[in-house]
């Protein structure tokens, strides 16, 4: 059991129309702790009909919510933000129990998640339209921004809090209402945040959280013509399916999908800074983020020195249950995740790569994997093409800038990319040549609430966070008024 200062945060119901509900069938889904396999709690397995009821409640809530003054919506969001920050320790404990990330990292995510609510509470008051100079003197042309309507969000397990607030905050700020389907591995963090939304005074039906079987819930939400928008974060594979399901009703979609982030270290880089950045980017959340460095390209002149320094530092990362003090690498989310990491490492080794550090399951057992560094990695290996989503740093060697740009862009993905150089002219050349939605120069950490997060190519559509994020939840209405 998770020990909480505020036990009301651990919910076993879904949030529909302002109340905590169980499935009428009585069916539940168990949430387990990836560190030891224990059951953290049950959540309801809602039926398609129960999801339809949530859509009806959303429909009833949308009118009044969208018609409130922006400053009223803003005030409620601000309270929600404050409550999340005040309950950060409990929320982090719930997150670590169901997701596995170290407590300090979980708390960091809670603060990050809350920052989107604070930001969009402020942006709610700044949804401006336009007045367009008319081509005729007897017309007045006005652009109004109006909320899209009922929105659905489907979110992943790697950021159980932030992926929800990054969608719900701009939606609610804009005057939309939202139904969230959290990942089946991590619904308890979502429900706890829902409890705080109630305490903040969010009216019934404005934010609802439905748990259960992904296909059933996703099917109802995408098929409904009342739901006007889907915001999804997850794999490209599932994003493609959901986008197709949204096609018959021409729903708006925002998609944050897979990445295959290159992390490029040029000969003229500050090696120590690059090692710190590589660790921050690669090993955060045990390598389970879509912006984690997946392919490390290191120029010949410093390849050996970088590999040695990286391995020395990675060897110091403590592995263990997220609740243990000082741990930096927790367990992977489940058996499939560790099987994928093993497959990637075995494939690389079978094709000639060399394991400098780690390379196998951790003695702790379960889904713990040793932080790993591999050298001699080449483009024919699976790690070059697929996201490993684990604590494995594969080091590719390159000779020229032209060659590394070609290799970095040789993927269907385009989410985040990183590069280290001290050369100003190269900085601009490389930043502009990388086909990615986000680029980190001399840093491995780029996400925050004020910057636009999102990808190009098959990494997604749309941007979250920043002043652009709220536009995803607004429609443009053009009003043409004849004055005589
Ligand atoms: P991950 O690899 O991060 O688990 P997924 O894309 O499989 O990524 O899952 C992300 C979210 O999408 C989760 O909430 C999951 O339940 C949901 N999901 C997976 N498959 C479907 C589907 N067919 N329909 C609707 N939601 C789905």
Automatic annotation (TrEMBL):
Name any one Pfam family assigned in the record.
Aldedh
- Tell me the keywords, alphabetical order: Oxidation, Oxidoreductase, Potassium
Catalytic residue list: 256
Query: What is a single cellular component term in the Gene Ontology annotation?
Result: cytosol
**Entry-linked CDD domains:** ALDH_F5_SSADH_GabD
Q: For the Aldehyde dehydrogenase domain, which residue ranges apply? A: 20-478
Q: What is this protein called?
A: Succinate semialdehyde dehydrogenase
Write down the species: Pseudoxanthobacter soli DSM 19599
The major lineage groups are: Bacteria, Pseudomonadati, Pseudomonadota, Alphaproteobacteria, Hyphomicrobiales
